[in-house]
Amino acid sequence: MHASDFTATAPLACDLLVRADAVITQDDERRVLTDAGVAVADGLVLEVGDYADLDARYEPVQRLDMAGRMLLPGLVNGHTHLPMTLLRGFADDLPLMDWLQEHIWPVEAQLDEELLGIGARLGCAELIRTGCTAFLNGYFHEHVTGEAASACGLRAVLGEGFFAFPSPFFPTAEACWETIRTLQARFADDPLVRTAVTPHAAFTVPPELLEASYELAESLDIPWQTHLAESPTETSVCLGKYGMRPVEILRTRGLLSPRVTLHHCVDVDEREIARLAASGANVVHNPASNLKLCSGMSPVQDLLDAGVNVGLGTDGASSNNQLNMFRDMGLAALVGKVRHGDASAVGAQTALDMATRNSARCLGWPELGRIEAGYPADMIALDLSSPNLMPVFNHVSHAVYAATGMEVCMTMVAGEVLYLYGEFRTLDVGGLRREAARAAKWVRRASGK
């Protein structure tokens, strides 16, 4: 045998090779790999596996050594109103209807695009800092939030909100249709931003307009989302107006399908849960907001057991005060146990699924929420040297029950690092702090407080 009989294998090219103590993949087998690595190219994961093996086979343009850290998929916020960071702590300790009608809506009516931009950038900074890489939004002048998200490097699905009654943004619900079409066209070529049709709720938009907006979503082939069954008070309003509970209003109009994402679903009964499951509609659980507004506790385990895809969201920063998905992930598990009287209900793996893969489906973006070959390289890292993450027996348990979100030391979207060891790479946080202070003065004036 001669030396010429041996052919050296050329190293494989990749843009980035990441090393970590552990990788929570969230793949179909829910593998957790130790002493692991992730190879990335063109914004996608090429391979996940043993770091020594990947290091021997790949020649990366860059390396990112996350020794002492664990990687997991970027969290996906299934329901928020990003610019409402402007109203964080503004009207606390109030029930839902009083909070909305007497405090939030009067100030919202006076917001302009400049203020909304400040709120959106604040929200993006908080999401990046706490390990969220994609979100489903609903608010006004959504192009502003889309521009902020795209500039910051986050993924977003934008929903221009509307009501049946005239608002400062639209004289009628139908007046929003053209805005929705324009919004979709505006971001058609942006790989990070998509759109959805977003009627506010079954108690603020009548059935015929809900149906018309759903037809618009079908014609554009985009998701349709709305608040639904958020509280017993909402149910009472719907019964008074239409003689039907919220889920039944949608069912009778043919508005339950896999295209649909329903936010909250606190006040739902066994028959309604079965109908949601049969339809393929998605539900987003918002435990912190539901608790703060005293709306109730959603029967999450019952929904999951019935086969409903249940994601996780923070809601807006004025009804949660945080956009921290780690807090809501922990709350989802804890509240789920109390709601069902069962310590095994909504376990750690279930809560992590809700915050990643399940929420990704709620966005209509099912390829998100996992670290797997061929999928987007959206990843975050937690610093395992934080005292509350030592020792490690179960990485998933730590992510759900022990982490606070402040252990996030790296946030990446499509292979681009947005945050690393305290440095925001796509945001001027100092300038944002000054803008936030100016916005706070405006809110005080606008509210008369």
Question: What would the keywords be for this entry?
Answer:
449 residues, Urease, subunit C, domain 1, 2 domains, 16 strands, 15 helices
Topology:
Blueprint: E1 12-24, E2 32-41, E3 44-50, H1 51-57, E4 58-73, E5 75-80, H2 96-108, H3 113-129, E6 132-137, H4 142-152, E7 155-162, H5 175-186, E8 193-199, H6 207-220, E9 224-228, H7 232-242, H8 246-252, E10 260-264, H9 270-279, E11 282-285, H10 287-292, H11 300-306, E12 309-312, H12 325-340, H13 348-362, E13 379-383, H14 395-402, E14 408-413, E15 416-420, E16 423-424, H15 429-447
Parallel strand pairs: 1-4, 5-6, 6-7, 7-8, 9-10, 10-11, 11-12
Antiparallel strand pairs: 1-2, 2-3, 4-13, 13-14, 14-15, 15-16
GO molecular function: 5'-methylthioadenosine deaminase activity; metal ion binding; S-adenosylhomocysteine deaminase activity
Keywords: Hydrolase, Metal-binding, Zinc
Binding site for Zn(2+): 79, 81, 227, 315
What's a concise summary of this model?
With 449 residues, the chain is an alpha/beta fold. It has helices spanning 51-57, 96-108, 113-129, 142-152, 175-186, 207-220, 232-242, 246-252, 270-279, 287-292, 300-306, 325-340, 348-362, 395-402, 429-447; strands at residues 12-24, 32-41, 44-50, 58-73, 75-80, 132-137, 155-162, 193-199, 224-228, 260-264, 282-285, 309-312, 379-383, 408-413, 416-420, 423-424.
